[in-house]
Design brief:
This protein is of the alpha/beta class. The protein contains 15 helices and 20 strands. Helices cover 34% and strands 20% of the residues. The strands form four sheets. Strands 7, 8, 9, 10, 11, 14, 15, 16 and 18 form a nine-stranded mixed sheet that branches. One of its GO terms (molecular function) is aminopeptidase activity.
Length: 462
């Protein structure tokens, strides 16, 4: 993966680094008893107890001699993410060796804590740097994937419309030798993607379906994975226009596409033994003379007619054509990512993506990977009796209806376009931090991504 744009939080191993003691609260007393009396008194006067997220500097004859960092779970990257801003500017090295999964968590957490989106605004305090011989290769690639999501989601729509998203997808595909194509504008109608066209036709920026295929990683005998990402580059709500506060951050409505592209990039960088196809319907849901209308009946690739109950339920409309195409490719597994419903946020809040899965083994694998990676998700039900809320009197299906169980009905709508017997998972993800916390700056965020990669790696025997 491209690492030139990784956060500037790392220093070479031979830098003049100060010692950093990484301590869980449960082990703090034992560590403290082994320190000189002056250190014990210094920390006692500060009432320092190595609580998670804490930091204390250690004095020396010529100033700061080191620091103690309170961490929680040593395998959680966010246990370390406060370090780059809590510590003074300079280089720091763990006072005791850190190995294995803890070392990867340290490096990833440090990088996430050092992240800044600087495309339009520079300056600010530089992060403290972690001195390491070299970033562990997988941790580096996972960090790059998380940064990719953050950067894409943070970029305003004038610089991240459908054509710019295509440029990013094309760059990722080219870097890994994948075959790329784009179906743009009226070609969507000619090639059988009428629902994508209907949502995007009102914008001055043509709608498109982005697609690339990769056969690397010894994948000739490997399973076929299809990744689908919702690429609504801005969502006004259409003619069912959003209020101002609901529209304010709708540059992030391509967060599903950002996750799919970053996961694809990570799969290819790590050369997992898979055949990979990526599908991203990229549109703007705009207002204009050509905007699709409430009550309109639109065609879909699968031949299912859809009555538009609400033009602000557009994500599922563009995804249904992409999922129908995914099913035509004889996939072994389909994963889709989408900033799909506010109902999922009401149910689970901003940190827990809602996972809908039609296969119990797949659900178990992804949830278990989330626990291992400290990248949690929560499974929600595909409660099929709620399909009654999508009943239309004039079409096969409505795109919305009742306010009841909004995240569930959205997932059920998508499931209608997945062939029976194909393992499929849908992640309804927020892709955003409303406010800043350690390692989680306000703005774009990757959620469920690390877990998805770990799940795929485990399924590939890695």
């Amino acid at each position: 993966m491209h690492t030139a744009d990784l956060p500037a939080g790392f220093a070479p191993a031979d830098s003049d680094a100060l010692p950093l003691h990484l301590l869980e609260r449960a082990h703090y007393d034992d560590w403290l008893q082994a320190q000189p009396e002056s250190v014990r008194a210094w920390l006692s006067q500060q009432q320092f107890d190595a609580a998670a997220g804490s930091c204390a500097l250690l004095p020396g004859e010529r100033g700061v001699a080191g620091a103690v960092l309170g961490i929680g779970d040593p395998l959680d990257p966010y246990s370390y993410a406060h370090a780059p801003t809590a510590l003074p500017i300079g280089d720091w090295r763990p006072a005791a060796p850190v190995h294995g999964d803890a070392a990867r968590a340290l490096q990833l957490g440090w990088g996430l804590g050092a992240y800044r989106f600087t495309r339009y605004k520079s300056g600010g305090r530089a992060p403290a740097r972690l001195s390491v011989p070299a970033l562990e290769a997988e941790a580096r690639d996972v960090l790059a994937a998380c940064v990719r999501v953050r950067d894409l989601v943070n970029t305003p729509t004038e610089d991240m419309g459908p054509e710019q998203l295509e440029a990013v997808a094309r760059e990722i595909a080219s870097a890994h030798g994948a075959r790329f194509e784009s179906i743009v504008g009226d070609a969507l109608l000619e090639q059988g993607f009428p629902a994508i066209h209907a949502v995007g036709r009102a914008s001055h920026r043509a709608p498109r379906l982005l697609k690339f295929e990769w056969h690397g990683g010894d994948a000739q005998a490997g399973p076929h994975l299809v990744l689908v990402g919702k690429g609504v580059c801005f969502d006004t709500g259409g003619l069912d226009i959003k209020p101002a506060d609901g529209m304010r951050h709708m540059k992030k409505d391509m967060g599903g596409a950002a996750h799919a592209l970053a996961l694809a990039e990570l799969v290819m960088a790590r050369r997992l033994p898979l055949r990979l196809t990526v599908l991203v319907p990229a549109v703007e849901n705009a207002i204009g003379p050509e905007a699709f209308r409430p009550g309109e009946v639109i065609a879909t690739r699968k031949g299912v007619s859809v009555e538009i109950d609400n033009t602000d339920a557009e994500g599922r409309v563009v995804l249904c054509d992409a999922l129908a195409h995914a099913g035509e490719l004889s996939p072994d597994l389909v994963l889709d990512f989408a900033t799909l419903t506010g109902a999922a946020r009401i149910a689970l809040g901003p940190d827990l993506p809602a996972l809908f899965v039609n296969d119990d083994a797949l659900a178990g694998d992804w949830l278990a990977a989330g626990e291992r990676e400290r990248d949690p998700l929560w499974r929600m039900p595909l409660w099929r009796p709620y399909l009654r809320y999508l009943t239309s009197n004039i079409a096969d299906l409505a795109n919305a209806g009742s306010r009841m169980a909004g995240a569930v009905t959205a997932a059920l709508y998508l499931e209608r376009f997945v062939p029976e017997g194909v393992p499929w998972a849908h992640l309804d993800v927020y892709a955003w931090n409303d406010s800043a916390r350690a390692g989680r700056p306000a703005g774009g965020e990757a959620l469920g991504l690390r877990a998805a990669y770990a799940m795929l790696r485990a399924r590939c025997g890695g």
